[in-house]
Amino acid sequence: MAVPASLHALLNQSIDYAGLFPPASLALEPAIENQATYVRSSDAWMLNTFVLPVQQFDAAKQFLSHFDVSHPLRVAALGPKTASAEALLDSLEDADAAIRSFSGYNLDLVAINHLEMFLPDDADTAVLNQARAICDLLTREANWSALDGAVTFFASARLRQISQCPAAHSWLDAGNQF
């Protein structure tokens, strides 16, 4: 069945596969096997990235043989949830090392699309600026690739957390973005 152009435009690369997380909660190997199957399916045009915690990058290396140059493992890297701004900055540096190691393991089979991390409650404008500087450095030096050439760091937070964080509001209101 042909997909209408409007539906294709709406859903093109709109789905990140998070098989490691509920409701599927699969182990790493079957989740990666699913991703390898999905990137070769007729519906692959809807698929974007495989959500993979940076802590599991080393374990995932053994399963890269499921991918090839035409069907690489495109990753949405998930950083750890941190309790403080200081821990966020430390975790960004740890994520840098993990991303470099994983993407450097086999450049043809792995592409890191973006990094997602929660924004801790105590983050202020200075911390956001430091995080932005670290991310800018990572995107210039690491093997991160996205189809549009952009790499994004997401500071994820629940809406109520953002509403309770005046520093985040003022930082974003000033036109800053990750």
Global geometry? globular
Query: How many E strands?
Result: 5
What is the CATH class name?
Answer: Alpha Beta
Number of helices: 7
Please give a structural write-up.
The protein is α/β, with parallel strands linked by helices. It has a single domain (5-173), classed as TIM Barrel (Alpha-Beta Barrel). 41% of the residues lie in helices and 17% in strands. Strands 1-2-3-4-5 form a five-stranded parallel beta sheet. Strand 2 (47-53), helix 3 and strand 3 form a beta-alpha-beta unit. Helix 4 (85-105) packs parallel to helix 5. The longest helix is centred in the middle third of the chain and has 21 residues, at 85-105. It is globular, with a radius of gyration of 17 Å. Residues 145-164 have low confidence and may be disordered.
Summary tags:
five-stranded parallel sheet; 178 residues; globular; alpha/beta
